[in-house]
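Query form — protein PadR family transcriptional regulator

QUESTION: What is the three-dimensional structure of this chain?
INPUT:
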Amino acid sequence: MAIVGHTLLALLEGGPRHGYDLKRAYDERFGHDRPLHYGQVYSTLSRLLKNGLVEVDGLEAGGGPERKRYAITDAGITDVAAWLDTPEKPEPYLQNTLYTKVVLALMTGRSAADVLDAQRSEHLRMMRELTRRKAGGDLADQLICDHALFHLEADLRWLELTAARLDQLAAEIDPGKPS
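ANSWER: The structure tokens for PadR family transcriptional regulator are given below.
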């Protein structure tokens, strides 16, 4: 199950909620950059209902169609607990788009240094934006920004190391070409 499903399940552990309430709670805590669409909330709830992880706790009449209130089941609580107890697989990023661009620039006679410089500028721009966001955010937003900043710092170290090794990489890609 995807992160959205587990997140909605965990939010339901606090008590039954309508889809609208779940979307709002998700967006406030986790959706700053990518708020959920209502369709995604309701399709996820439908899947959770089908899988026995949630149940309809009640129907309420409103100005429009009846609103369903969802509650987590014991199976849903067990599922959330198992998900939280399972460590995420670290992503080693052994093959990424940036590395591919550097190699292809070298292979096609373009400037790999320019590719790295442009990427460095974009990383620094994003780091400034995240630093501003972090300064004005609550603790949860600060932690999210720190996570992103640490990843960007690691990327910057890789950019610097790669720039220092461009001649060596070019020689390995095309051994007959003079450095």
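ADDITIONAL NOTE: The chain has two domains: 3-85, 97-173.
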